[in-house]
Amino acid sequence: MLTGLLWLLGCQLVGQLVVDATGVPVPGPVIGMVLLLVVLVVRDPPGDSPVHRTADAVLPHLQLLFVPAGVGIVAYAGVLRDDLVAVLVALVGSWFLGLAVVGLLADRLGRRTRVVDAPDPGRGP
C-alpha cells in the first residue's frame, strides 16, 4: 500500500511542480491526476496493482476530505456573512450554468445515438 500511496502523492507533487513552473491556471492536483491517469493507462494493466489497492483502501474514507472544507467555512464565516449575496449568486448561478451545460450535452448526445440506432425507413424490418 505504501508504493501506491507514493505513486499518488508523487503524481500530485509533479502536477504541483508543473503548475509552479509554467503558471498554468489549473490546480496542481488536477494536473497530477491527469498524469496519474496517463501512467496507469500506459504502465499498469487493469487488475491488482499497488495504486488500485491503495485507492480501494482510501475510497471508503473519502468523506474525511470534506472536513477541511467545513473548517474553512467556519473560519471564514464573517467574510461569507459580509458577502452573502455575492456568494449565493455565484453558487446558484454556477449550479444553473452547470445544469444547463450538462442538459445540452445530454440532449445532443442523445440525438446522436438515436440517429445512429434508428432503423433505416427504406429497408424492411
TrEMBL record:
Q: Which residues cross the membrane?
A: 26-42, 62-79, 85-106
The Swiss-Prot or TrEMBL record annotates one GO molecular function as: hydrolase activity
Subcellular location(s) per record: Cell membrane
Lipid bilayer topology: Multi-pass membrane protein
- Highest rank taxon of the organism: Bacteria
Q: Name one Pfam family in it.
A: LrgA
Q: Which UniProt keywords apply?
A: Cell membrane, Hydrolase, Membrane, Transmembrane, Transmembrane helix
Q: What is any one of the record's Gene Ontology cellular component terms?
A: plasma membrane
Where is it mainly found? membrane
What is the protein named? Putative effector of murein hydrolase LrgA (UPF0299 family)
Biological source species: Nocardioides marinisabuli
